[in-house]
Write a structure and sequence with these properties.
The chain is α+β, with helices and mostly antiparallel strands. The protein has three helices and 26 strands. Among the domains are: 102 residues; 92 residues; 102 residues, Sandwich (Immunoglobulin-like). The strands form four sheets. Strands 9, 10, 15, 16, 17, 18, 19, 20, 21, 22, 23, 24 and 25 form a 13-stranded mixed sheet that branches. A hairpin with a 2-residue loop joins strand 17 and strand 18. Helix 1 packs antiparallel against helix 2. About 2% of the residues have low confidence.
Length: 513
Amino acid sequence: MSSEYEVHADAVEVTFYEDRARVERAATVALEPGTRIIRLIGPGVLIDDATLAVEVTGSARVLTARARRRYVTRESAPELARAQLEIEADAKARAADLRQDLARAQSSLARLHVLEAATMVELSRVPRAGEVEELDGALEALWSQRLELVARLDELQCAIEDAVRDEHAAAARAAVARQVHQELVADVEVQIEATQAEEVDVTLRYFTPCALWRPAHTARLDRSGDTPRLEIATQATAWQRTGEEWTGVRCVFSTARPTQLARPPLLTDDRVWTRPKTDEERRVVSVEARDVEISVAGSKGSRQRDEMPGVDDGGEPVSYEASETITMASDGSPVRVQIDHASLECEVETVCFPEVSPVAHVRARATWSNTRPMLAGPVDLVRGDTLAGRALAKFAGSGEPFEMGFGPDSDLRVRRKQTEEVDKKGLRRRTHREREVELYVSNLGDRPGELTIVERLPVSEIDDVTVERGDLAGGEVDEDGMLRLKVSVATRQTTTRRISYVVVHGSNVRLNM
């Protein structure tokens, strides 16, 4: 003989992924010998049936488990309806009390009319002089009371109208809140076979969409000590609209992609065609200047994505567990919790790229030393106790150098001026393009300043074009043509640096730069 009953399964752990979540629910069930059908209440209608798994402890075993969805008829807002009905009853009682006060005031006004009429009759009989003064005083007192009663009647009438209006409004809101509608709900039907009477723990696991997380950081640059330090706190920002209420659950934030295709794609042939050059192409070499994005790992790298940004973990999944339980409503509101922290020694310098902007910025360089990587994501930049702005942090693995900017330095400015002269020299009439860049560095502050200026020098990729470097003002050039020049500027002073180079090419080269 089989029986069926319902048990509420509480959510105890939620593992967030970049586009879904895995929910674990638990319940305790008292079983009698035989087969029982238990309906676990709690999962939402978005439960992924294919990922449903149920486990029990003890000697009992699970025969079948399936998600069941059905429509139920419910009031729109029963709690709101009860509150509005209470407001309606209070307004109705208030209106009844006010009507009684109004009736008493009207009765008093009628008695005043009678007294006024009697006083006027007495005055018409030509009484003695003393009686006239007494009747005049009584008549004035009656008129004063009459004015007060008229004002009281108006006040009571307005109060009655307000109470009736509140009563009707509460009744209308209660009627709307008590409207019934059909709602789709879900539960998990589990068939369990027990060989003996025992109390077992039932664990339910499943995946659900409409829940995700993204990493975010708060970076604080502290230069108060002898060695500058970079404090980076990593937070997990999670959202969910699954239709489930998660109260006091353990949360795990994972960068794994459980639904990603694990098999590599098949390769196809990449065909290349060749054709003979034309006469014009044989005579003239066309060269164009182009900006090359230096794509290397570390702080010099840059990465582009065409799709919606997800969680970048560098290819190795990692998991973070929240240090405390979290309560999250199914309303799409973000919930933030700290999951990691790092305190790093760093090197701080002020840099400027005058070709792009005359403003100098504070930059910190450090090496990530935590065992788990720093995930890519937005970062709030704090310099000292002041918010310097927001930026996007790139992925950094353990032992990998990285850099962060902490806003502009208002004291230092750089003005850039570039001149170019073109001349043809030699018997072969080779073209010489002489360029000179003048940099005017100004310090508007009250203390000396140090600045690192970064300039780009052209780098040739063919033998027909050569670049001859001239005066580099004491700077150093790397293999990518990036010139780094350190400049010290005294208080409220301006210093000048000049950089020159020559681009040489033959007459058969058409150079666009």
